[in-house]
Amino acid sequence: MNTTIAYQRSRAVEYAKKWARGRNPAYPSFDQLGGDCTNFISQCLYAGSGIWNETPDTGWYLRSLNDRAAAWSGVEYLAKFLLRDGGSGPYAKRCSWQDLKPGDVVQLGNHERFYHSLLVVQTGKTFGDLLIATHTFDTLNRRLDSYVFHRLRCLTIVGVRTG
């Protein structure tokens, strides 16, 4: 039976601020494998949750570059994992940008697919007040409205299931 605990948003944001412009040596970098954005967002989420999911194929974990779940480093897979029904680890629901909170996840997409994951580090009253942190093109406190995208997926973290 799953027990739910609180997601520690402040820990996720603190982690993002510490490592947005660098790489934590405890984790491999995906810079040479298509980009490090979702790997970085997973690290932030793990900092705020402390629980991953080691379920083969559908879990969310990283032991090494060769031993990881697709959801740890893949944009679409991370969204699918966060929106799942059941299983350990952080979970989310879709929301509007107005409902985002620091520590939530935003994904950018074009007409065909979502391609970039970002962590919200600050919110405000307008879309221009949303500040994010991400990797691949390392940034901290960048305005979300400075990106060019066709679709926006907003995922608010509801809690963490303990398993």
Write up what this structure looks like.
- It is a single chain.
- With 163 residues, the protein is α+β, with helices and mostly antiparallel strands.
- The protein has one domain: endopeptidase fold (from Nostoc punctiforme) (Alpha-Beta Complex), CATH 3.90.1720.
- Helices cover 22% and strands 29% of the residues.
- A hairpin with a 2-residue loop joins β2 and β3.
- It starts with a strand and ends with a strand.
Distance between the termini: 7 Å
Query: What spatial form do the alpha-carbon principal axes imply?
Result: globular
Please give the CATH architecture.
Alpha-Beta Complex
Structural class: alpha+beta
Oligomer: single chain
Number of strands: 9
What tags apply to this protein structure?
single chain, 7-stranded antiparallel beta sheet, endopeptidase fold (from Nostoc punctiforme), 4 helices
Ordered list of secondary-structure elements with their pairings:
Blueprint: E1 4-5, H1 9-19, H2 37-49, E2 62-64, E3 67-68, H3 70-73, H4 75-82, E4 89-94, E5 105-109, E6 114-122, E7 131-134, E8 139-143, E9 151-161
Antiparallel strand pairs: 1-9, 2-3, 4-9, 5-6, 5-9, 6-7, 7-8
Helix pairs in contact: 1-2
Task: Please summarize what this structure is.
Helices cover 22% and strands 29% of the residues. The protein has helices at 9-19, 37-49, 70-73, 75-82, and strands at residues 4-5, 62-64, 67-68, 89-94, 105-109, 114-122, 131-134, 139-143, 151-161. It is globular, with a radius of gyration of 14 Å.
